Amino acid sequence: MTPPATSAGWVRGSTWTRGQKRGVLIALVMLVIAVALAIRFWALGISDPSRYVASLDRLAFSPRWHLVRSEVKAPGADVGCLPIANLYCPSATRYYRVDSTNRMDIHAEVKQVVLAGGMQVEEEYLAACFAPNIFSDTCPFLAADGFQTVEFTIYDPGKDADSLGIADPLHSVVRVTARVRLLPMATKAPGG
């Protein structure tokens, strides 16, 4: 008489097949790689928000940019700031009022500041900048700096960025956030 099969289709007392062993081995190797990457990111100091503040400090805006608010998110200091679950933890964010209402002028200045700061242009969302309120009420721009992404979001005059009460009908507000980038960006030609 043969023993009954289990729900997995194996016969009690049988050994693993070569394919089953290989599958378990691959899963263990992937787990080890994931743990090693996590340790590497922590060792690089990616969880330290000061590196993101330093990135923002490198951006030299013209005198028509006025800083109105700064925020730093760090693990352990902010509720819900879990680096593995949230790309904005840790991060540094600054909000500026700009003496301009023209999104394309601000966008052009952002690009100049990014390149002068030694960063690379990652994405320019020009359609959103050319056609205000059709695609979006914001004009985004992404830059890369090694293991960091720097996000620029240009808000139309009167739009309240993140409901912080900093809207102004005569000035655009620009949110600039530096945050972790898990994979370095492929090299692009200077200027994007």
Low-pLDDT parts are 187-192
Q: Report the order of strands and helices.
A: HHEEHEHEEE
Look at the helices and sheets and give the structural class. Answer: alpha+beta
Task: Please describe the biggest sheet, giving its number of strands, its sense, and whether it closes into a barrel.
Answer: 6 strands, antiparallel
- Tell me, briefly, the overall form: elongated
Helix residue percentage = 25-40%
Number of helices in the DSSP assignment:
4
| Beta strand % | 15-25%
For the record, the count of structural domains works out to 2
| Termini gap | 72 Å
| Mean pLDDT rating | 80
Q: Tell me the quaternary state.
A: single chain
- Main sheet: strand order: 1-2-6-5-4-3
Number of strands: 6
The Rg value, from CA coordinates, equals 24 Å
Write up this protein.
Strand 4 (138-145) and strand 5 (148-155) form a beta hairpin. Strands 1-2-6-5-4-3 form a 6-stranded antiparallel sheet. It folds into 2 domains: 15-44; 50-180, no CATH class. The chain has 192 residues and is an alpha+beta fold. 28% of the residues lie in helices and 24% in strands. The longest helix has 26 residues, at 18-43. The radius of gyration is 24 Å and the shape is elongated.
Question: What is the fold's blueprint, element by element?
Answer:
Elements: H1 18-43, H2 50-57, E1 65-73, E2 91-98, H3 103-116, E3 120-124, H4 126-130, E4 138-145, E5 148-155, E6 172-180
Antiparallel strand pairs: 1-2, 2-6, 3-4, 4-5, 5-6
